[in-house]
Amino acid sequence: MFGLGKKDLSLFLIVVGLALFAPFLLNPFPTGSSLAQFNAGYPDLMQRFVIFGIFAIGFNLLFGLTGYLSFGHAAFLGMGSYAAVWMFKLLSMNVIPAILLSMVVAGLFAVVIGYVSLRRSGIYFSILTLAFAQMSYNLAYSVLTPITNGETGLQITLNDPRIFGVSATADGGIPVTNLFGLEMRSATTLDIAGWSFSFSAGYYLCAIMMILAFYLAIRIFRSPFGLMLRAIKSNQHRLNYTGLNARPYTLAVFVISGMYAGLAGGLLASMDPLAGPERMQWTASGEVVLMTILGGAGTLIGPVLGAGFIKYFENIFSKINDGVLHSWFAFLPDGIENLVVGLIHPFVGKGWHLTLGLMFMLVVIFLPGGLVEGGQRIGRLMRRRKKPAQDPRKPSPNPAE
């Protein structure tokens, strides 16, 4: 089905199920319960799950298949956002032209950066991509301020000369992004026995885009092109000795990966029409590296899991404050309660980065293959327990030699 093997089809259906049923899966606790703190079924948060999933899937095509570690992919994310907002300002508020332009602009930018950076490999390639990204970030603050609006960020206004749209709504407000009239911020809330589920048009657009991006990644992984990329990762020097030039393949996957990042940037701007230089900062590039490694570099579903894992716990840990902690441990004596809250305090709230850092260290040390390896270990353990033990009184099916 869909040109996929049995295993790939299973992974694809898992991703489709996770994306389509996320409003239910991310709201496991009733709205009024004390555990509602762990719910994450909000439209804006779910959008970030799938958008950064696209970002990580594209990065994994480069890093997971070829081994080329880029620290500059945030530049393509930012370029995609800027291109989308300019499309909203000049053409229309329809998200389709904005998304297409964001991919084209990011792809062209990736051709330039890749052509220069791919002349080197290893740490030198990583440094070159980081240098290009930081150069783009600083230019957005200085020389390119007329295009990027500098520190304030690029956003739509009432004075935009929109060709196929209105500059203001009937009530004098700024128009919102839409898909052929369907507003991206429109949402439907379903209340069932204490649970509240939100279904957002913007989220489902992003989810469909991620499903298509994941399907394309599967086809690339299983294609002769993907096989050549694995050969480059295995031993590029030996490949060159056979007379095959690896440069066109690495440049092609670099551009494809950049277009994935541009798509993610365009979707970010489509959900919230604002583009700022902070999206091009090196920390955003480092975040997608963490997502890919945490989920499982070189695997298909790993980047999706890594992106969801980081964005989920980033949201959960950052919301926990001392008041929440005291409500959790109120059953303890006052002295012990204050001690426990004091011990946990540095790891939550503003210190959530510390918790994620420790979790990342543990995964890298004990699960070098990421969350996917953890799932595989659990699967092997379950199969081993289900396998019936052989009765020692019964003869072995294979005769002794």
From TrEMBL:
One Pfam family per UniProt: BPD_transp_2
Matching InterPro entries: ABC_transp_permease, LivM-like
Topology of this chain in the membrane: Multi-pass membrane protein
Compartments (UniProt record): Cell membrane
Region span, Disordered: 382-401
Protein name per its UniProtKB record: Amino acid/amide ABC transporter membrane protein 2, HAAT family (TC 3.A.1.4.-)
Keyword Cell membrane carried by entry: yes
GO cellular component terms, A-Z: plasma membrane
Provenance organism: Salipiger marinus
GO MF entry, a single one: branched-chain amino acid transmembrane transporter activity
